[in-house]
Amino acid sequence: MSRPLPVLITADQIERRVGELAAQIAPLYRGEPLTIVGILTGSLMFLADLVRRLDGPLRIGLIQASSYHGTQSGTLTVGREIQGDVRGRHVLLLDDILDTGQTLRHLVEHMRQLEPRSLRVAVLLRKQGKQRVEVSADFVGFEIPDEFVVGYGLDYNDEYRYLPHVAVLPREMYSERSGMEPHANPARH
Ligand code: IMP
Ligand code: MG
Asked: In the chain, how many domains are there?
């Protein structure tokens, strides 16, 4: 067994914060058609916990984005979409983490073209000082330092998503072996 990764945000802290976010979000949509669209795969836990804290009718959508930072310097494409027609519905786009902002900027643009009634963005985590692309999140769970984090949906090479908390992946776990940032690989979000 390898030793456990250092915990950055506990499961209890996440639960409490998701409850607070739900309390901010709910009054904005009361009685109006809402689709919450989770960006695969990292937002799955956040999505599942958040929707269960919101009452009222809402639909769940999923959208996939793939980036190829390593080979094509940050080209991002929209993959599979399972979200029904959002025209005339409010959309809340959810992601696990706002890092450079590339992914969300691209997906916000994409969603806009589908003509929702309104479009807002919620992220569980925002890395401080990393945003290079103009994109704003309407709801942010936690501001975190510039560390690579895993758990509660977030992965490193598709591992660790199952952790109930958010942990820091120590730099020696990736920099020595590959000499690369973890997200310099073709990424599955
Ligand atoms: P951005 O396009 O640079 O904002 O990156 C956003 C995506 O990169 C997120 O949706 C994550 O999938 C991934 N990502 C960025 N930072 C981390 C991290 O610290 N841990 C795990 N995934 C990350
Ligand atoms: Mg992601």
From this structure: 1
